[in-house]
Amino acid sequence: MACGASVMEAYASSVLYGTGLSPNASAVIFGLFIVVACVPFALTVDKYGRRPLFMVSCVGTTLCHVFIAVLLSPEDGVESMSAVDGWLLLASVCGAEFFINIGLMPVLSVVQCEYFPSDTRGLANSAVVFTITFTSTIMLKIYQPVTDAYGKRANFIGYAAITFLGGLFCYFWVPETKGKSFLQIQTDFETYAWRNGKTRRRNYERI
C-alpha cells in the first residue's frame, strides 16, 4: 500500500481536483479499472509467472506516478487545468490503479501462499495483512500533512520512489514460483538461482 493505491482511492476527488470530475465519477472510473485489471492478471499469472507481473506492475506504476507528479500543479488551490492536462492526469491516475492491480496487489496474495509451509501459512498471512493495513493507514494519515507542507505532487514523488525501489527488490530478491514445488522455491531462496535463470539440479522428490 506504500505504492499509493489506498490514497488514490480515498482521495480521488482531491487528486483529480481541477479536472471537473465529480467524486462519484472518480469512484466509478477507479472501480472499472480495478475490474479490468483482473482480466490480464488472470490470463497471464500462470502463463508468464509472478516476477514478470511484479516487474511490469512496478515499472508501470512508477511511470504513472511520475506523470501525475508532473501534471499536478504546485499551486494546490488552482481552480482548473487545461482539458489536455486534465485528461492526461486522469489517464495517469487510472493507469497507476491499473498497473497496481495487475501485479502488486493480486500477485502478493498468490506468492504469500507459495512461500510458506502449511503450518506457518496462517501466521504469515496474518502478518502480511497486518503490514498492508498498517502501511495503508500510515499513507492515508500522512497524505494531507504532506500536501499542506509540500503540495500534492510530493506524495506522488514519494510513491514513485517507493515503487521503483520495490521493483529493484523484486528483480534481485523475489524468485519465480510458477510451476515449482515448495521445496524448489525454498532452494531458490537459498541459492538465488533465479538471478541467472538457472535452478539447482536436485532430485526434489527424493529429498
UniProtKB/TrEMBL annotation:
Keyword Cytoplasm tagged: no
Xref: PROSITE patterns: MFS
Membrane topology, record value: Multi-pass membrane protein
UniProt entry keywords in alphabetical sequence: Membrane, Sugar transport, Transmembrane, Transmembrane helix, Transport
Gene Ontology MF: a single term: transmembrane transporter activity
Annotated compartments: Membrane
Major location category of this protein: membrane
Domain Major facilitator superfamily (MFS) profile: 1-178
Origin superkingdom: Eukaryota
SUPFAM superfamilies found in the cross-reference section: MFS general substrate transporter (SSF103473)
Annotated GO CC locations: membrane
Transmembrane stretches, start-end: 25-45, 52-74, 86-111, 123-144, 156-174
Protein name: Sugar transporter ERD6-like 2
Organism encoding this protein: Schizaphis graminum
This protein's encoding gene: SUGTL3
